[in-house]
Amino acid sequence: MNFKDILIKRRAINFFDPDRDVEESLLKTIIKNAANAPSSYNLQPWKLMVLRDHDKKSALQTLAFNQPKITEAPVILIVLADRDGWKAGNSSFESVFKDNVDSGKMQQEQKDGFSGTTQTLYGQTSESSQAFANKNAGLFAMSLMYSATEQGLETHPMDGFDHDGVKKEFNIPDNYWIPMLIAVGYLKPGVKVHPKAWRQSYEEMILK
Asked: Cβ neighbours of residue 28 under 8 Å, at least 6 residues apart?
């Protein structure tokens, strides 16, 4: 499937086949491929919670306006945006800096400077940390949905849920914001997918 086909085929699907599972190896491939998404200073401030268990998905469904697709889809991903991803000591920050040193891009003594740069850009206010986390996690989430489409799967991003309720139910640490949930699975047999809805034209998107 070429990329244009992926762009066109990717849809927000409401009806998933509850009898067709997503193999763990396939899900891992999708997630690993999506991890190639761009991020600020390669900090990758995102994590995922993977829900397969019916009881856990049912608990989530009650916190998400009882959307049927949450229990019908074999996999629900809770996308987590790490507001502390820019901080020295954060696991991703430390891994990125180590990689920079190992590859020769930086020297060990540059760590304080690197930390100061990321703090200046992303840690001055709670709003800037929130924006940093959400923008980068959004890039990852979009890549994840394209990755799933390329593997023949369907997805649906959801932002209709009780954010604080989900954090409490699944014991999600305070440094994480939840930009969206993503349902992953196969289209329910017999469901007709309507043509892609209206999109802005080139002329409508460009402001002059």
From this structure: none
Query: Which pair of structure tokens corresponds to residue 171?
Result: 């014991």
CA 107 – CA 111 distance, rounded (Å): 8
Buried b / exposed e over 153-174, threshold 16 CB at 10 Å, is bbbbbbeebeeeebbeebebee
Distance CA 166, CA 21 (A): 24
71 touches 54 (CB < 8 A): yes
Q: Distance between CA 59 and CA 133 in Å, rounded? A: 26
Task: Provide the phi-psi class of 163: left if phi over 0, else alpha when psi is between -120 and 50, else beta.
Answer: alpha
pLDDT tens-place string over residues 35-76: 999 999 999 999 999 999 999 999 999 999 999 999 999 999
Helix axes of 24-34 and 126-150: crossing angle, nearest 10 degrees: 130
- The Cα 133–Cα 158 span in angstroms is 18
The closest of 170, 191, 193, 155 to 70, measured between CA atoms, is 155
Phi and psi at 83, nearest 5°, equal -70, -15
How far apart are alpha carbons 46 and 136 in whole angstroms? 7
Residue among 42, 76, 52, 68 at smallest CA distance from 144: 76
Q: What is the pLDDT of residues 78-118, one digit of tens each?
A: 999 999 999 999 999 999 999 999 999 999 999 999 999 99
d(CA 177, CA 127): 12
